[in-house]
Design a protein that fits this description.
The chain contains 13 helices and 15 strands. The chain is of the alpha/beta class and about 375 residues long. The chain binds zinc ion (ZN). Zinc ion binds near residues 235, 245, 247, 252 and 254. One of its GO terms (biological process) is D-xylose metabolic process.
């Protein structure tokens, strides 16, 4: 029987070489060949191809231990740039990143309720970041991380503002840019970021801000569901006949644990606008109204978290909210509310990084650009 030809195997080897460079770079060709158990000639030929494309670079010379010094290779940090956006009902942020996914520049604007006006803000955001790129370098791609529901074919199913619904944001952007573009739900992008930063582990993440989202990563893949809408945890019903929700139901989780709804509830109680900083201060003063609201927050978040753990049995259960960040002893109190004898998780993590959606989106973009199964960060096991 004839074995597979080198030509057939080359794309597979290219993927493996790229993943090895991402995970272990800077690394010599000899070490890449040894790790992958392929010939040094194959590694040399693939690295020549990647060098020509400017995607990898000679990074340094290995310390001499006698004999010839080995040249080390790494992903070329300046081989191209990624522009990653977060689009939420309140802000549109843009981040310029290099190929090592380091942040180079950052910009933020207010979202407009009208899709067409916001689309112009999106174009301005991208164009202003393009201007900051070194002229001779290409854009690898644009990542859009959207705090709303998007279908697998990139149509907006649900967003806070009506004029955005049924729009194909990716198609609209493709008329202006010819590079690779991806469109992700922001909670999914945040979950992917965390999975990459936790040695590519399985996890679930509940993020609470203007809305409530759930990101699910299993086997290095985001769980999307049939249409792409999986993870709409903000609209699971936690209180029969509860607070009416814009989605048409009553008693949705979002109405009880999103940061905006909590501050709104507190503002009504206090009869004045309450910001997250006011919340933090009032909590530190044991304000009775804040304690009452926090009590409900614990109650409904525990229902949601218990349900997620029972459905997915994640390795890591991650919670992200400015309300949580304002409660110093949150995790000790909250853990006591998660004592299911049925299911389990390895670790509960509180996480805050307001650019993790943009960075997670950049990881997903690089995954597709390099045509690898999943993104792997340098130093991951
Ligand atoms: Zn709802």
């Amino acid at each position: 029987m004839k074995g597979l030809s080198n030509r057939t195997l080359r794309p597979l080897y290219r993927r493996k070489v790229i993943k090895t460079l991402l995970q272990y770079g800077p690394i010599s060709r000899t070490d890449i060949a040894a790790k992958l158990n392929i010939s040094k000639a194959t590694v040399s030929s693939i690295s020549e191809e990647l060098l020509k494309k400017n995607l990898i670079a000679e990074s340094s010379i290995a310390a001499s231990t006698g004999g010839r010094k080995a040249i080390l290779y790494d992903i070329n940090r300046n081989g191209g740039y990624i522009i990653s956006l977060e689009i939420t009902p309140t802000y549109i942020s843009g981040t310029l990143l290099d190929l090592h996914v380091n942040m180079i520049s950052d910009t933020c604007s207010e979202t407009n309720k009208e899709y067409s006006s916001s689309f112009n803000i999106i174009l301005e955001t991208i164009n202003s970041l393009i201007k900051e790129m070194p002229k001779e370098q290409p854009i690898i791609g644009i990542s859009i991380n959207f705090r709303g529901t998007v279908s697998k074919d990139n149509v907006i199913k649900y967003f806070d503002y009506d004029s955005w619904r049924s729009r194909n944001l990716l198609e609209d952007l493709s008329k202006h840019y010819s590079c690779l573009i991806n469109l992700n739900n922001e909670a999914n992008a945040r979950a992917y970021y965390n999975s990459v930063h936790l040695d590519n582990s399985d996890l679930t993440l509940i993020t609470m801000g203007t809305g409530v989202g759930l990101g699910i990563v299993e086997d290095n893949q985001i769980y999307l569901g049939y249409h792409g809408y999986a993870g709409e945890i903000g609209h699971i019903i936690v209180e029969p006949d509860g607070i009416p929700c814009p989605c048409g139901n009553k008693g949705c989780l979002e109405s009880y644990i999103s940061t905006i709804e909590i501050l709104k509830r507190l503002s009504t109680k206090k009869n004045k606008a309450i910001t997250i900083n006011d919340f933090k201060y009032l909590y530190s003063q044991n304000d009775i109204d804040v304690l009452e609201v926090v009590n409900d927050f614990y109650k409904y978040l525990a229902i949601a978290t218990n349900n997620v753990i029972n459905i997915f049995n994640p390795k890591y259960m991650i919670l992200s909210s400015e309300i949580i960040d304002s409660i110093p002893n949150f995790i000790e109190i909250f853990k006591q509310k998660l004592n299911s004898k049925v299911s389990d998780y390895e670790r509960l993590i509180i996480f805050s990084n307001n650019r993790s959606g943009a960075i997670g989106g950049a990881y997903l973009l690089l995954r597709d650009f390099f045509d690898i199964e999943f993104y792997i960060k340098n130093g991951n096991k």
